[in-house]
Amino acid sequence: AEIPGVMAIGMLRGIELVRLNSDDTVTPLGVADGLDDEITLIVALPQRTLWAGTTAGAAIRLRLNPDGSIADLTRFDATRGLPPGAGWVNLTATADRMLVAVREGVFQLSHDGEKLIPHPAFAEHHPAGVNTLPFDSDRAGRFWFQIARPDGRYETGCLDTRAPHPTWTPLDPAIDEAL
Fold first, then answer.
1. Residues 6+ apart with CB under 8 A from 51
2. Closest Cα partner for 29 from 69, 73, 71?
3. Are 44 and 1 in contact (CB under 8 A)?
């Protein structure tokens, strides 16, 4: 998160920030107050911002002060745009935004940064959502993930959002045969 030596540790119940010392010890900087969820992953972005996915249907945005302490914490759950009961939350950073993925779909921040809204390319091509997690990105506008077809089969492919009209390209069906 652009603070040398500061590390966020995802815990079974929350996030702890520590400073790594030159002698391989750590100095605790603090715990994210009020966060009691199991953390599944943490993604660092520029401007001292961290995002965390949880198993409790929430994405957490932490903004840090220059010393590594927490400036603010925002919880994005059903009250801020994610579907109720979303469960496991995955995150993928692109070149210009954080994407939040749950089984029901892929979401991005609204223009005011206060809630999550469906990402239009994913909503257009996969209105039923992303079937499995994780999904991955090259940070240039291509995303690889798996969907459930209406006939019950699975399909892995790439959603390319670089062009004005996004396209879905299925990968070799042999990838999904074992599922």
1. 42, 43, 45, 59, 60, 61, 62, 91, 93, 98, 100
2. 69
3. yes
**Residues 47, 61: Cα–Cα separation, whole Å:** 12
C-alpha distance from residue 100 to each of 5, 35, 75 (Å): 27, 18, 12
Residue 178 pLDDT: 63
The pLDDT tens digits for 103-147 are 888 899 999 989 999 988 877 776 555 555 557 778 788 888 887
* 106, 91 Cβ separation under 8 angstroms: no
- Check: pTM over 0.90? Answer yes or no: no
pLDDT attached to residue 133 = 57
Cα separations (Å) of 92 from 24, 67, 100?
Answer: 30, 26, 7
- Residue 111: burial class (beta carbons within 10 Å; 0-12, 13-18, 19+): exposed
DSSP 20-83: E-TTS-EEEEEE-TT--SPEEEEEEETTTEEEEEESSS-EEEEEE-TTS-EEEEEEESGGGTSP
CB 89 within 8 A of CB 54: yes
For 65-114, what is each residue's pLDDT tens digit? 888 888 899 999 999 999 898 888 988 888 778 889 888 888 999 999 89
Instruction: Please say whether the beta carbons of 154 and 176 come within 8 A.
Output: yes
